[in-house]
Amino acid sequence: MNKFLPLIFFVFTTNAFASSLPNCPTNKLSMNGQFEDECISTCTAVGQEPNAQLSVGSSGFCVGSAKTSRFTLLSVRLGQSNSSEPSCDLWSGNLVVDKGIFSSGEQISAGGTFNSCKPGIYDVVYLKKRREEIISGEATFPDGSGKVARTTNIFGSTLPSSIDPQNFLETSTSHSNNSLPYVRPSVGWNLSFIKLSQTPSDVDLNPAPSYEMIYDWATSFSTGIPGPLAGYECENNASNICARVVDNMHHEERIVMNSASSDFLFAPDGGLVVTDAMQPSWSLSYFALNNGAERGLRFLWHNDAGVVKYLGVNAGDPGLQIRLSLIDISGAQ
Predict the structure, then answer these.
(1) Cβ(245)–Cβ(255) under 8 Å?
(2) Which three-class secondary structure string do you get for the chain?
(3) Are 317 and 298 in contact (CB under 8 A)?
(4) pTM of the complete model
(5) How many CB atoms lie within 10 A of CB 181?
(6) Residue 131 pairs with which residues in a beta bridge?
(7) 262 band by pLDDT with thresholds 50, 70 and 90
(8) In angstroms, rounded to a whole number, what is the distance separating the alpha carbons of residues 214 and 51?
(9) Do residues 134 and 100 touch, judged by C-beta distance below 8 A?
(10) How far apart are alpha carbons 283 and 269 in whole angstroms?
């Protein structure tokens, strides 16, 4: 049974959007991601709290403000946790999500093809997207100086030609090889950042515009933790959130339906029990970035002999919520 139905999704503000985490209180501000699952350490807040700032020689990140944050969702599929492949194509389409252009509270319609699923227990969701996310924005320096870092037009104009880290990723805090457009401070980091300048810099970019950059999500997947399923890299050893590159233009995220999997997937713990009468349904909502809150981008910094410098930026803090549920179609015409 195939159906062509409108997909409705909503845009929310911080207060109304359940999966958008609150700002961190002072005692939980951190530039090492320590409380990232609980709250957001904004660069402005860190700049006002010396105890949260980088010590000499250390690196860390904080969240800045996205002006643009645009990606394309191509399909939502369901599967079982004992398999690496989906078994039900729930939805397919070409949905461009731009969190920077809609106002909070808007309801937006998008088309797509919806399918039914064979009876069974589905406890994994697969989200297929284009690899790139278009980003732009800014962040205040997390040192109390009041200076501003912005997205630039030096790197991040194209996708890397290869997802082998040796072909795109520099592991250092010095930018010694600018043929590699992405950076991480050390081998232990499983996040990559697009470089903002040819050398780490403390130059105030406040007079400059925030340029659009292309962030390739596959660059972070390739530095993740190898998962138990072939071809996947995972966010952590629990393997609740993993991803793989499907082809040169697309990637797919595999998320297990349990309470530990994510703050953006809402589904019954243990999966959906699908029958001929009870079929899966899904909805999408996301956090609006045009309401003045610091959300949408992670900026990477390094304290170089007492001088805080920006290294790079990535498309962090997506503010996206996928909600899966069951609907009774036994009385449908």
Answers:
(1) no
(2) CEEECCEEEEEECCCCCCCCCCECCHHHCCCCCCCCCCCECEHHHHHCCHHHCCCCCCEEEEEEEEEEEEEEEEEEEEECCCCCCCCEEEEEEEEEEECCCCCCCCEEEECCEEECCCCEEECEEEEEEECEEEEEEEEECCCCCCCEEECCCCCCCCCCCCCCHHHCEEECCCCCCCCCCEEECCCCCCCCEEECCCCCECCCCCCCCCCCEEEECHHHHCCCEECCCCCCEECCCCCCEEEEECCCCEEEEEEECCCCCCCCEECCCCCEEECCCEEEEEEEEEECCCCCCCCEEEEEEEEECCEEEEEEEECCCCCEEEEEEEEECCCCC
(3) yes
(4) 0.86
(5) 24
(6) none
(7) low
(8) 33
(9) no
(10) 17
CA proximity to 311, closest of 141, 164, 179: 141
What residues does 73 pair with on adjacent strands? Answer: 95, 129
- Contact (CB, 8 A) for 109 and 6: yes
Nearest to 325 by CA among 93, 129, 125, 127: 125
Token code pair at residue 102: 């809609």
The span from the CA of 56 to the CA of 58, in Å, is 6
Q: How far is CA 187 from the centre of its chain?
A: 21
Domain extent listing, the chain: 2-328
Give the amino acid at 301.
W
90-96: list long-range contacts, CB under 8 Å, 24+ apart: 90/114, 90/115, 90/117, 90/280, 90/282, 91/7, 91/115, 91/282, 93/7, 95/7, 95/284, 96/70, 96/71, 96/72
Residue 48 corresponds to which amino acid?
A: Q
244 closest CA partner among 178, 175, 163: 163
- pLDDT per residue over 75-129, tens digit each? 999 999 888 899 999 999 888 887 766 665 666 666 778 889 999 999 999 999 9
Distances in whole angstroms, Cα of residue 75 to Cα of each of 14, 95, 229, 325 = 26, 9, 21, 17
Which residue in the block uniquely carries the two structure tokens 């397919």? 92
Cα four-point dihedral sign 97, 320, 136, 224: negative
